[in-house]
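Sat 14:20. Reprocessing the chain from the morning session after the first attempt stalled halfway. Input below, unchanged.
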Amino acid sequence: MKNLLFTLLFACTLTSCFNDPDDEFIEQCLTPINIQLSNTTQESTTITWEDSNTFTTYTIEYGVSGFTLGFGETLTTTDTNITLVGLEANTSYDFYIQSICSDNVSMLTNVFSFTTTAPIVVSQFVNNLSDMHIYSGNLEDLNPSPYAFEYDLISPLFTDYAYKQRIIALPSGEAMQYVDNGLPIFPDNTVIAKTFYYFNDERDITLGKKIMETRILIKQNGSWVTGNYKWNEAQTEATLDPNGSVVAYNYVNNAGEPKSVNYEIPSNTDCFTCHSNNSILTPIGPKLRSMHFNNQLQSFVDQNLLSNITDVSNITMLPDWKNDRDYSLMQRARAYFDVNCAHCHSPGGTCDTTSILDFSFERPFDETNIYLQRFTIQARTQNYTNDYSMPLIGTTMIHAEGYALIEAFVDSL
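Finished this time. Tokens:
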């Protein structure tokens, strides 16, 4: 009897539920699917998705990766796509999407993430070096922007034993153009940067470094302009300094010897003195023959950074005066002269009208006048005397290794 009563009661309950006119089935609002990202730049990205709901709007909440839901930026749209703008460069973001149907809302999507691109290198002078975006991350780490690349020279210029980092930033999609063994043709808006620094102790570089300056060359409308940035004591920023200055510094060299230097940051006028040829400002260092080692040029070709040439083996290589004894004493000495002296002592250089010397490596020896001036060369390089020793600017001391090479070369003539 009890079983019969229970069955009747259950049947009545079912009948009552299904016959209630106020009870209607509400379709669940579905979560967006197939979420895609595109056109991500330094300040924006576009998000697209799919949705099978009808009469739906969407909310997108986003913020720097790890943000707490409810505390991000929220946008609403009726489209199945949206572009986020005003983002910070080189920053990771998270976002969620939710559908809002007429009667209810969907669950949030899983978290999706993206990272904006690094800022484009600025090809004009601004007050702070950081605002040129040549470097990524902490400025003092000297990590090049993704839009820049480092290069090195087989025989670098001597600058009071300072270390140097060399960087080139080319406009997007453009390349240096091969012409000959010398300077390539750089496209407009190329930025060349050279940063000078000393290690506190050369025996242990983990003890840090002191960055002195960053010299910048920018090609604008077919002409080069120059500017120098002086680093602050905190090593957090460098500011444009057209007048030049002197920075005193003490460090320990590889031999464990304490060294002192009064490092001279050149003025814009000083820069023009060395970088001028026929009164036109020009780069000095990045000649192809000076970069032709350690597969560097071929790497530039492979990365589409150097055009108009496929076989770099035909490019002449400047001798490594310091380390490669396979070259003759004359070849090594002339390579040293080429990188340290020829920018002034060559046709069109600053000293063209005041000196008969031509230190260009490609010049036949009998046309250089090195032999005629050998004793003058020796006298002006064996000791340091302000306004007399060579080079006249850019150094404040004798380059011991360089002079030993010059002395041996002069004695051999």
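DSSP finds seven helices and 21 strands in the chain.
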